[in-house]
């Protein structure tokens, strides 16, 4: 991309976080894509596949946790441009079985702007019904975002 067309400021940070998400090795296990439209919110579109089912034919809890944690995490880390946040706690509430097909996790920052951040997320199935909800606490780490291979601003 020519330098004059490269994103700057918050937009560059959000695109770099999207690249960081895509570069994480764990995301080779899940068909998913992170979108950050603005600081403090996130959306992950993903597919629920039969290879993630538990014995009763719906998504295993690992899918719920991963998507909720990631959506909340990126909503919070979108407000921090220098450090990687770490999940310190996460509460998850299952409300409906998640079946095969497209789904999305929506994350939203709730509070905190210095050291500890709180964010929440929810998963919606293809019909728009909520299947799970979670709230996480995230701590500013000593890991510089600029030192992570997948974080590529501008």
UniProtKB/TrEMBL annotation:
Q: A GO molecular-function term, please?
A: acyl-CoA hydrolase activity
NCBIfam families associated with the record? unchar_dom_1
SUPFAM superfamilies in the record, alphabetically? Answer: Thioesterase/thiol ester dehydrase-isomerase
Where does the Thioesterase domain lie?
57-132
Identify the taxonomic lineage of the organism of origin: Bacteria, Pseudomonadati, Pseudomonadota, Alphaproteobacteria, Sphingomonadales
Task: Report TM segments.
Answer: none
Top-level taxonomic group: Bacteria
Name of the protein: PaaI family thioesterase
Ordered alphabetically, the record's keywords are: Hydrolase
